[in-house]
Amino acid sequence: MEVDHIEKLFEELKDSFDTAEPADGHRLRFLAKLEATSKASTKTKKYLFGWKPLSIAAAVLILCSLGFNFLYTSPSVRQQVSKISPEISNTENYFASVIEDQVKKMQKKVHPKLKN
User: Which segment of 52-56, 86-90, 96-100 scores lowest on mean pLDDT?
Assistant: First the structure.
């Protein structure tokens, strides 16, 4: 049966493994350093406001502004003018009808050379 590649690797490196015991107090020094770094990291992670509440507030603000734009659209210029002065809209209608009448009269009086 063929020897597994990993087993062959362990056989080759058998004498190069470090099997000595660590010095006295090594474990305690390691745990003290680990605890010091964990305390330092917890101090930097404390925020006054987290990202989650700010993102929720931003989403609500965007939705409110979009709703306001859709519900309260400003009237067009024509609607504003007719509200300000109904006389202006009546005058506009009068002149539009006069212009239409003049165009119809001109179309009836076509020059004889242009008929063909």
Answer: 86-90
89, 82 contact by CB (below 8 A): yes
Largest CA distance in the chain: 123
Token pair, residue 72, equals: 């309260």
How far apart (Å, rounded) are the C-alpha atoms in residues 24 and 46? 36
User: Chain centroid to CA 47: how far?
Assistant: 24
| Separation of alpha carbons 63 and 57, rounded Å | 10
How many angstroms separate the CA atoms of 44 and 49, rounded? 13
Q: Cβ distance 65 to 58 under 8 Å?
A: no
Which string of b and e fits 81-99 if b means at least 16 CB within 10 Å? ebeeeeeeeeeeeeeeeee
* Per-residue pLDDT tens digits for 42-62: 655 556 667 888 899 999 999
In 1-116, DSSP assigns E strands to: none
CA pair distance 99, 91, nearest whole angstrom: 12
